[in-house]
Amino acid sequence: MKVSTRSALSALAVVFTLYLAVGGFVWNPWPERPIVSASAIGFYLVTTWLCIFWGPSSKPLSPWLTALALAAAVLVPNATWYAAGADALRAPYATAGLGEISALLTIMVVRGRVWQAWVGVVIILVSGSLWIGIPATLSLGAVGAIVWVGIAQLVTGLMARSARDTAELTELQRTSSEWLASQDGRRRERRVTVQRAIALAGPVLTRVIETGGSLSDEERAQARLAEGRLRDELRGRRLLDDGVRMQLEAMRRRGTDVTMLDEGGLDDVDERQLASIREELAATLEHAHSERVFIRTAQHEGIAVTVVGRSRSEDDPDGEEVVDLWHEIRRPSAESGSGASVGAGS
Questions:
Q1: Is this model's pTM higher than 0.70 or not?
Q2: Which tens digit of pLDDT belongs to each residue from 92-126?
């Protein structure tokens, strides 16, 4: 059978406050106004137990309960002295209210009402000084109130600080774990990239070494294609699938200069959305006939990829290049359509 920490502490507090209340009923001699004395003890017990059990322990004591506890700090000691009568002001049951309210103020500190508890300490000091004087008040219970409230404040402060430190440590551990996981993912990604680069460039480099750089025209063409594939893998790997790679290969064989650059605009796009983007990119490249094509991810909330094609005019081969292809691939989550095309991409 499991018992929570709060349940155990609450039970201990109930037993202790009940013990103090029982001490208030040890009437020797008999008080002048026993009904007043019993009513004060009953009010103290009800107030104390409400402060123990009412509301979640993680939140401070509610304002109305705080006000009720301060009212008890005023009423209970004064009522017990009034009930005892002038001849028994220093009797144990007459000063029992000091100990009872000390316990209540300690509970207030634990429930997050620290300065209100110290106000309660001042209240019982003032009340005691009016009935039996300051020295007697201090010796018969007020010092205990000061000590209890002070220790409770110290302990709860240390516990709160420990909880904050634990939370900070947990957050640091979580951040560290995430960082290590990301670094591990990046290492795996780099290994895959290096392995693919070796697979793409290895045969060409081997042939260059074997021939001392004397390659045939076909071998040179294959070397340029391998270089392009390698640049694609390094600069835009998230845009690549078999369909996109096939279209890039076909464009380069037609003599098109293709530049691909992924600047992180697709970091928050999942694989399903990436598949849709790659499919549209492959379809766009299939109909592209520009001399130079630039493929770039977009740092835009609606646009995922921008494809731009530039060519020189057939009437002026030595003139400036003009844009003959412009296609924007929107993110799959965007409300608008698949993009706009101009020139060769239309």
A1: no
A2: 888 888 989 999 999 999 998 999 999 999 999 99
Question: 109 with 86: CB under 8 angstroms?
Answer: no
User: Position 67: which residue type?
Assistant: A
Residues 326 and 340: beta-carbon distance below 8 Å: yes
3-state secondary structure of 303: strand
- Spatial neighbors of 82 by CB under 8 A, at least 6 apart, are 33, 36
Whether the link from the prior residue into 92 is cis, omega within 30° of 0, is no
pLDDT tens for residues 228-262? Answer: 887 887 778 788 888 988 999 888 888 888 988 88
Report the alpha-carbon distance of residue 248 to residue 284 in Å, rounded: 11
Q: Match 């983007």 to its residue by tokens.
A: 277
d(CA 229, CA 238): 14
CA distance 343 to 33: 104
Please list the residues that pair with 259 across neighbouring strands: 294
Give how far the C-alpha of residue 241 lies from the chain's centroid of Cα atoms, to the nearest Å: 36
Distance of CA 26 to the CA centre of its chain: 55
**Distance (Å, whole) CA 324 – CA 312:** 9
Whether residue 55 has pLDDT greater than 50: yes
